[in-house]
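INFO  loader      accepted 1 record
INFO  loader      residues=146
INFO  predictor   begin
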Amino acid sequence: MTASPDEETGVIGRVIEHDMPVIYSFDSNLPVPEMLQSLGWLAVVSWKYDGSTNNGMPPQELNQRMILLESSIEEHAWGSQLYRAYGRTGNGLKELVYYTSSQETFLQGINAALTGIPVFPINITFYADAGWEDLKLLQSDFAGKA
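INFO  predictor   done
INFO  writer      dumping tokens
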């Protein structure tokens, strides 16, 4: 069964990592083939935090800052040059993972998106992933578990 364009295709899943819950959110469908072909870089925005309390989840105030980071990036989603692959939260780590056309495009876009906002304690790592294997593996891991 395929989802109609108006149906929600988002997945929220939970795994246990070192006895701590980790929550993933992602779209169960891949984007259109043109986007798959044009976005061959995976950009991982990582924010490490103290996960020793709150069952490994960020405390409310910190979580609000993380939401600000994510919404700022996605509100400034620079056209067809960015696709949100997934988000991951738990066990002392928040990750926002995107597909982008190039490292330079992503860095320019995120800098523009975060202009005027206090600095976030994040690291950004890039991986070549023209086949979108990272997202496909995550989708496969959660297939049939919803």
